Amino acid sequence: MRIDAHQHYWKISRGDYGWLTPDVRTLYRDFLPQDLEPHLNKHHMNQTILVQAAPTLAETAFILKLSEECETVAGVVGWLNLEDSNYKTHFNMFRKHPKFVGFRVMIQDMEDPSVILTKSYLEALTYFAEKDVPVDLLVVHHQLPVLLELLKRIPTLRGVIDHIGKPSIASGEMETWKKHIHHLASYKNIYCKLSGMITEADHQNWEKQAFVPYIQFILNEFGSKRVMFGSDWPVCNLAGSYDDVVEVLTYALPRSMTEHEKELLFGDNAKRFYKLL
Predict the structure, then answer these.
(1) How far apart are CA 68 and CA 76, in angstroms?
(2) Tell me: the pLDDT tens digits for 40-56?
(3) Residues 173, 181: contact at Cβ < 8 Å?
(4) What architecture does CATH give domain 3-273?
C-alpha cells in the first residue's frame, strides 16, 4: 500500500482560503480528486492523507464529506480552534467520521508563534497527547525553537513535522535548522514528512542535488520508521509538478536503502502514525 501522506483539495467558491488570492494564479482554481487521480495512478499511489487548507471547522467538514466520495482518501487531517473552549465538542463531532485521523496546528500562520505555549494551547495539546491523537505541525524553520519548547512541556505529543520544518533551501542555510531538527528527532513520538521541499527552493531555478543534504539529514535523524512521503500537491505546482516531487525524493535516497525501508517511507509509516492499520 503506497500512500501520499500530504495533499490538499479545495474549492475556491467556498470562500475561506484567505491565503489563496487571484494573484496566486497557479493555485487559484479548484483542485479536486479527479485532478489528482492521474498523478496517483502514474506513481502507483493507492491512497492519500488529505490535509486541511483553511483554518475553519467548515473546511474540515467539507473535506470529510469529500472523502466519503473518494476511495483514494485514506484519512483526513482537519483543523480545530484550540483557543475555543468547545474544541473537545468539535473534536468529538469530527472523530465520529471514519476517515478523520487527526488535526493540524498551523504555527506557520501565527504572528507570534509563542502563542502555542499559552495556557489554552498547552491544556488542549496535553489533552490530545493523553489520547494519543495524531497532530500535524506546520512550522517554519525560524519557529522550530518554539516547537522544541512545546515538546519539552508535552513530550508525549504524537506529532509529525510537515515539510521537514520548512528550511530555507533557497538560501542553502542548514546549520541552525539541523541543530533544531536533531533535538526534535530525539522525541520518539515525533515523525517528519519529506514533503513541501521544492517550494522552499528557488521556484524558477532549483536543482535536484540541492535537496540531497536535507533529505539525507532527515533520514539519518528520524530513521526509517518515522519518515513519510508527501507530495504537498497542488501547492507543489508553485515550483514544479507531482513528477518533480517524486523525482527529487527518489534521487536523494541513499543507495543502501532497502525495499522494506522504502515501503515504510512510501506508506507503512503513514499507516502507523495515523492509525490506519
Answers:
(1) 10
(2) 999 999 999 999 999 99
(3) no
(4) Alpha-Beta Barrel (3.20)
